[in-house]
Amino acid sequence: MIYITGDTHIPIDIRKLSSANFPKQKELTKSDYVIVCGDFGGIWDGSNEERYWLKWLESKNFTTLFVDGNHENHVMLVEQYKAEEYCGGKAHRIMPSIYHLMRGAVFILDGKKFFAMGGASSHDKIYRKENKSWWPQELPSEDEYQSAFNSLDTHNWMVDYIITHCAPDSIQDKLSSYYEHDKLTSFFEYSIKPNCSYRKWFFGHYHTDTAVDNKHICLYQNIIEIS
């Protein structure tokens, strides 16, 4: 079984994955997945509180997968965690059953194809400190954009699901005028959305639970099952 949810912002919103708030987890095993659409928050400063929540999540009856959002320590992700092959793509193994799905890869989970492309702009960066509470690597590099093209070419630009943190320009515009277009949202709009065949596109970032249309779903607190 595969479930998906929005930002967990460890420790702020991680409690939605408690047994009380997500009782279906009692029926799951480590062969089942919960996917977080960015702003995972568990790779931030290496604090005791952070380690506590990672161990708490590791103890759950499921495997946690996440794409990165803008509020992650992107330098720590790369420097402290080794990339490895995972379900057809590249991932950072955070703990035995917690994985960061790297940008531009296609993963095969329960026979379904998931294109993962994390990253987003921190529109609150004026209140943050560079390389302390926001990182320039929050947006993909040219190599990561190329990895996306290469992966999708391999799969003939046909996947079941797309998992990102932010949304394509036109979808974002329907959610809020506060968020500006950037290279990543425009990449989604002009390179991915019109060219890739997909059933659903799930994303977080905008702190709302909204089905923008029948294919583009913004998640925050909701935890939904992918069929």
Tell me about this structure.
- This protein is of the alpha/beta class.
- It is built from five helices and 13 strands.
- It has helices at 48-58, 74-80, 142-154, 169-175, 183-192; strands at residues 2-5, 33-37, 63-67, 83-86, 89-95, 98-101, 105-109, 112-117, 161-164, 200-203, 210-211, 216-218, 223-226.
- The strands form two sheets. The protein has a seven-stranded mixed beta sheet with strand order 4-5-6-3-2-1-13. A six-stranded mixed beta sheet has the order 7-8-9-10-12-11.
- α4 (169-175) packs across α5.
- The longest helix has 13 residues, at 142-154.
- It is globular, with a radius of gyration of 16 Å.
Give the uncertain stretches in residue-range form.
none
Tell how many strands the DSSP assignment holds: 13
CATH fold descriptor: Purple Acid Phosphatase, chain A, domain 2
From the 3D coordinates, which CATH architecture would you assign?
Answer: 4-Layer Sandwich
Order of helices and strands: EEHEHEEEEEHEHHEEEE
As a percent range, the share of helical residues equals: 10-25%
What amount of the residues lies in strands? Answer: 25-35%
CATH class: Alpha Beta
Radius of gyration: 16 Å
The tally of structural domains comes to 1
Please state the structural category: alpha/beta
Separate helix tally:
5
Global mean pLDDT = 97
Largest sheet: 7 strands, mixed
User: What is the terminal-to-terminal distance?
Assistant: 8 Å
Strand order of the largest sheet: 4-5-6-3-2-1-13
Structure characteristics:
globular, alpha/beta, single chain, 227 residues, Purple Acid Phosphatase, chain A, domain 2, 25% strand, seven-stranded mixed sheet, six-stranded mixed sheet
